[in-house]
Amino acid sequence: MTASLPPSGAPLSHYVSTAPFDPYSVEAMTAGQAKIFQASQLRLMWWKFKKHRIALASGIFLLALYLMIVVAEFLAPYNLHTRNMDFIHAPPQRVRLFHEGQLVGPFVYGRTMTLDMDTLRRVYADDKSDVQRLRFFCSGDPYKFWGIWEASTHLVCPAKDGEFFALGTDRLGRDVLSRIIYGARISLTIGLIGIAVSFTLGIVIGGFAGYHGGVIDLVVQRIIEVLQSIPSIPLWMALAAIMPVSWSPILVYLGITVILGLLDWTGLARAVRSKLLALREEDYVLAAQLMGARSSRIIGRHLVPGFMSHLIASATITIPGMILGETALSFLGLGLRPPITSWGILLTEARSVSVIAFYPWLLYPMIPVILVILAFNFLGDGLRDAADPYK
Amino acid sequence: MITRRTVLGMLAATCLSPPLARAALALEEPEFLKEKLGDGALPPMAERLPKVPRVVNLAAMDRKPGQYGGSARMIIGSQKDIRLMTINGYARLVGFDEHLALQPDILESFDQIENRAYTFRLREGHRWSDGHPFTVDDFAYYWEDVLNNKEMRPRGLPLDLLSEGKPPRFEVIDPLTVRYTWDVPNPDFLLRLASPQPLTLALPAHYMKQFHPKYADPETLKKLIEDSGSDDWTGLHIDMSRTYRPENPELPTLDPWRNLTKPPAEQFIFERNPFYHRVDETGQQLPYIDRIFLNVSAPGIIPAKAGAGETDLQAGGLDFADYTFLKDAEDRYPIRVSLWERTQGSRVALLPNLNCGDKAWRDLFRDVRFRRALSMAIDREEINKASFFGLARESADTILPQSPLFKEEYQHAWAQFDPDLADKLLDEVGLKERRSDGLRLLPDGRPASMIIESAGESTLETDVLELVTDHWRQVGLALSVRTSQRDVFRSRALGGEIMLSVQQGIDNGIPTPDMSPSALAPTGDEQLQWPVWGLHYLSAEQKGEAPELPEAKRLVELMRQWKRSSSTAERETIWTEMLTIYTQQVFSIGIVNGTLQPVVSNRKIRNVPENGLYGFDPTAFMGVYLPDTFWYDGSA
Question: Taking 90 as the threshold, does the pLDDT of residue B532 lie above it?
Fold first, then answer.
């Protein structure tokens, strides 16, 4: 028996077949099957996500909105602060195609305003003889694109010397549609910046608590409990009141996002912690530890990516909370201040009783708020389902 | 007397035909008091009224005598606003009538010598609301035991009672007459008695003595102090004797209605004072309306509530912008909306703080060319069009044409829209350098960017500021708005932390020469254009700093002259010079005045004027229009 063994140190003699070998020969798969079974995690998630029709639609809607705010100046027919003193509280104008049975392309009728001195209302009437064709890719209010380039091109403008207020005007004759578009810039980004803050805090704090356990975990858990037990609106109000009044509106905007983020990380930290508590017992963690990796590397490189998809899904669901938070704060007069314009600011300016009675179009900023919140919720829902594609 | 009452009562009971019943009703007791009269808790009307009541001749005011009954609801924005009842009730020792002439009201007569010696004659038989006689003892008590009590007033008499720092002599001439005599004139004295927040001269001594150690049993008083949670007797005495904010339901009053509700409460009920001293020409005791309910509500929803018919008499909390809504609600609810004219010098005024802590800005604000430039850069017509339907008067912060002192030049002083001249003036004051975006630079290189403080109470202010921001940007000045609480305004302004603030203009826009011109001179620390100088005057030169601008100094000097003056002609000259200085120097930047104030009243209420002047001082909101003469027309 010993004679067949090679001498000590020499390789063991063995035989390798050079014949082609298909490991799946026992259980042969079609090309289609192979595509599914060998697909990457990301691909699987995408497939799963695609099946969630509403989530997909929401995703596309949100993507479009975010693209829109990049070119807000171009899309808005007027500038944010353009006033038109002759058209105060003008109701929305209807875009028409046919004038006296003839197709003239998109146009609006010109309007005449009369002052009703008895009720002190401005009464607007369509002037059917004044056809004002809308212009596209036209030159309108000059603006500084992204604050850098001078430009004046707009997607759509009113006819020369005409007006086009698709969603009406407010009490200083400012176009509501343009203000909603500009307001989106603030309202939509505030959620993203806020979530970035809360994401970082949540992962770092939750990660350490979950990974190390023990005293750190105990302390973090208690802090989270305390933070979560404080009613959020009064806490926002307190924090917003701390912000120095001399700050410029831009700094206030950043301050508000940080406040929103600072208060929102707790849920995320909890999720991260519970995941880590389970994952840190895995063999690959032990292997990394044996190789001398530090805990930040283990958490960052090995553990978090394991449930990143999950985190993204849950983050998506918290964005609407942030947007609502900003809206609520601004509505209470504690958040952003004019001239910064967000949807919350627009709604604040529309909270008098006359608005509801006579100028309901000033409440239109509510619609994008509702749509965006819904879209984020559906998207988050779809992402969460997709994050676990094997289910 | 009793026989006549009984006969009348029988008449009213037996005569069922309406015209006769109404004729009888003219001398009838209010239904509301019948029960108390029946069981003898109240004496009949003739005994409740003073011997010589104040007769309000309604026919002479183009109004009609009315009938008793009904209760009126009003909405107030906070509990503090129960003071509205004192303001609107407008029972004063002397008070203004509709034409702003002084009339004796609680007093039967008054007379004065050279504005130094004032003799007041009380009405014989006048009683507090609890039936106790109102006499010179009440004046004597307040003078000796409150005003001149060292514990009560460690710092001496209130400023209004001092003339050149000297207190008056107080004399009781006879049981119905008192006299206050100064060595030098105190022309402000009667006006302070007639003002919406009047100077107190008398308290119900019979009631207040229980809180005063001089009269009260020490043990009982000690217990009262402990029960009330006050620190000492002075605190208790002050709490129990508040007349401006009638928070103590037990405190007897001379007002038309007396409070029945102890705060805190959501609703305050005021009930007719059965011993009130005014009657109409038919001899009926006023007020006509039995009860007033004050409902506390969030200020923001007062217009909505008024438009839903939840108030019977309302002006506070309503703004011109709500008019359209209220007018529309006329069709749905039994309300009537009228428009009165506001009396402020400017509905919205911008006040550059001449005591600003930042040296560069302070120097600019003190430069009249800068203030004029700020004023002329504002397009008042646009603001008028946008916020007031063009119905307001574009004007500097000054008096209204209704005032006998009005001159057109005050209204137009530096109030024209002239951005070119503004630009030129700004260049002259050392703001020639500009940044690439056109913003001017201060001499020290900082951008010329100002912060204006607003209490953020009304969208009107926000709108006006938005427009002004744009107008000023055109001449290269940036403005940003900071919202802060009105309560901390004064201390921050005194500390120099405020650059500019936005407020209403001078309060009394319809003065006569006999009214005090104090709003035009640095006389108070609530004047945010010169709080430190104002404090100097207010504290009798103990605190703050003396004015440094020659014009401001001159204003203080003129103010002192007015205080010493003893003839109307002399005062008119002083007023004219002060108005000229104030408007020429643009110490506050007015925008529009004479704006309209919606007044909502129940359609059944009679005698509410269709047009009136609305303001705190001197008309005491509705006070000079005598709300005690408003009545419910049951047949309407």
Answer: yes
**A238 shares its domain with A280:** yes
Closest by Cα among A128, A180, A131 to A158:
A131
Which of 367-386 (B) contact A at CB < 8 A?
A: 382, 385-386
> How many structural domains compose chain A?
2
Inter-chain CB pairs, A–B, below 8 Å: 73
Please provide the distance, in angstroms rounded to a whole number, between the alpha carbons at the two ends of chain B: 33
Residue with token string 């060998």? A38
Question: Structural domain of residue A120, as residue ranges?
Answer: 93-164
The verdict on a CB contact (< 8 Å) between A85 and B385 is: yes
A324-373 confidence digits (pLDDT tens): 877 777 777 667 777 778 888 888 877 777 888 888 899 998 999 899 98
pLDDT digits (tens, 9 = 90+) for B456-510: 667 788 889 989 999 999 999 988 887 776 677 778 888 888 899 998 899 899 9
Burial class (CB within 10 angstroms; exposed 0-12, middle 13-18, buried 19+) of A89: buried
- Does A301 map to a domain? yes
Q: Which residues pair with B178 in a beta bridge?
A: B120, B172
Give the residue numbers spanning the domain of B562. 349-593
Residue B253 lies in a domain: no
Claim to verify: residue A245 and residue A381 sit in the same structural domain: yes
Cβ burial, residue A208 (10 Å; 0-12/13-18/19+): buried
Kindly report the CATH number assigned to the domain that includes residue B139. Answer: 3.90.76.10
CA distance linking residue B75 with residue A264, whole number of Å: 40
User: Across the interface, which of B307, B387, B482 has its CB nearest the CB of A353?
Assistant: B307
- Which chain A residues are closer than 8 Å to B389 by Cβ? 115, 117, 120
Residue A237's pLDDT band (cuts 50, 70, 90): confident
b/e map B298-329, b = 16+ CB within 10 Å:
eeebbbbbbbebbbbbbbbbbbbbbbbbbbbb
Is the CB of residue A363 less than 8 Å from the CB of residue A347? yes
Note whether A258 and A242 are within 8 A (CB).
no
Structure tokens at B275: 């011993």
Q: CATH number, domain at B582?
A: 3.10.105.10
